[in-house]
Amino acid sequence: MTLLDVDALSVEFRTRRSLGRRDVVAAVRDVSFQIAPGETLGLVGESGSGKSTIGRAVLHLLRPRSGTITFSGRDLTAIRGRLPAELRRAIQAVFQDPYSSLDPTKVIADLVAEPLVTHLGLGRSERRERAAHALERVGLERRHLERYPYELSGGQRQRVCIARALLSEPSLMVLDEPVSALDVSTQSQVINLLADVQADSGVGYLFIAHDLTVVRHLSHRIAALYRGRVVEDGGAARVADQPAHPYTQALVASVPVPDPVVQTRRRELRRRLLAAAPQRAAEPADGCPFAPRCSYAFEPCWSTFPVATPVVGGGHVRCHLYDQTATTPQPIATGLGMEASLTSLEP
Ligand code: SF4
After folding, report:
1. Per-residue pLDDT tens for 324-341?
2. Which of 290, 316, 323 has most ligand 1 atoms within 8 Å of CB, for mutation?
3. 287 lines ligand 1 (CB under 6 A)
4. Rounded CA gap, 117 and 107, in Å?
5. Which residues contact 146 (CB under 8 A, 6 or more apart)?
6. 18, 101, 180, 237: which has the fewest Cβ within 10 Å?
7. Which fold has domain 4-226?
């Protein structure tokens, strides 16, 4: 059963240049994925990869140029204007900065209970009881009801945002960099909380983050985005431990590790993976968008966008290193863990 089905989604933005000419920027190109109830899909990529744009399209905050977004069997892209109230309740969001998401002039009781006023019109005492219960569900206490946002830590504020989203009993949550503003120990607490909530309620998550390590902890599957395109997808463990695409390998190699030897080797791997081809710096119109930064780039990369090729261990990769035959995945990097990749690049 599919909760969310995103099919061939493309999003464009128009920019205005100084001479009045309009440029069109393709922020998301032909992206497809599904999320089942109780499942987490992690969208990972650098800043500007289009991951937050996809989240905003799912939340109906912008209109895609083409493609469909189907939630519980309803085509959201066919709905003009605001979503109906029942869909706004069913699809909730948690964003990166919990402080800017909370009105600093209101106490937590009123902030958490906002959806109850908006969606259900409940009376004050019942709202308060439900808000207290929601806070307890995310590890806060009744005494926090009378606090203002500035009196809470960053982790507590993000728990308030999660509690507020949960009050609507959503079946899908878009989590857009929900732990990026938190310190490492608070990050793991919030990730564990989100995992517990999912286990209890069966909510599906679209989890958007730039840090592949964070994404891996909560995700069942991961899709790596580069310049608005999915370049690799698969099970979370396979993508994080055995990344096939050079870009995903670079993302993994950019994650700091405590071992200084491994860290030095990862830094070297990342440097090699991102060695730009200086003679062709511009992104090719029809080729692989990663070509200007990819040290593996060869002739087809500059003229043809790679097809999705199955990867040993599950999922797909869009890279010409793997599609030299029509049906058989090539063993150039498939099945190689990061350590194996590092070894293969040793001089
Ligand atoms: Fe590099 Fe070519 Fe693969 Fe793109 S298709 S990631 S340029 S090897």
Report:
1. 553 443 444 433 344 434
2. 290
3. no
4. 15
5. 107, 108, 109
6. 18
7. Rossmann fold (3.40.50)
